[in-house]
Structure formats: C-alpha cells, structure tokens
Structure prediction request, 107 residues.
Amino acid sequence: VIRHAAGAALPDIKAELEKGSAELYRFNDCFFCFRVEQYARHSEFVVVAAEGQNLAQHCRAILKKAQEMGCECVRFHTSSEKLGRAMRRFGAVEAERVYKVATNGRQ
Prediction:
C-alpha cells in the first residue's frame, strides 16, 4: 500500500513492520507507516512513508495519533511539498535534510 512512497526503502520498511518496530496505520483513504523513536528526554512519532488521496487533510489525525502514543513531536520524511506546506500550518519547521553517499562508488 505504501510501495510508491517507500521507494528504495521498501525492503527496510517491510522488515521494520515484520519485527514490530514500525506500524502501518490507515486514515480513510491514506496509509501511513510510522515508528516511535525514544530519546533520553522525549519521544518522536516518525512518519517514514505515507501514500493515498488527500494526504495533507490527515495532518490533524497524525498529530492526534502521536499525542495518543505519548510523543512530544512528529517528524516526517517526505519529498512532498504539499504535505510539508500542510504540516507548516500546524507549526512544523524543516528540521533536517538527508543526503546519502554510497561508500562503494555506486548509488
């Protein structure tokens, strides 16, 4: 269900789902794969992949789910500017940019 959004990370996400370190959640016509990351002073609700219709309309539901799970914030990895704009309406700010370099010279 999140094949397109997961991209090359699909095997890793599948493995996380199988071992229970990530969950797949459905909001109407959208699917979100998330995990909770625990840190020394807080926990984060991390959306690792999301796919479906009207993703931006489900931001409030994502925040509510994170709150229910005791998380202090939501972090999501996306290349979707639309979803980014929607989350900014709830106070989201860009927190990181991720770059990947292969050590074997191949991508």
User: Anything to note?
Assistant: The chain is about 30% helix and 25% strand. The helical segments are 3-6, 10-19, 59-68, 81-88.
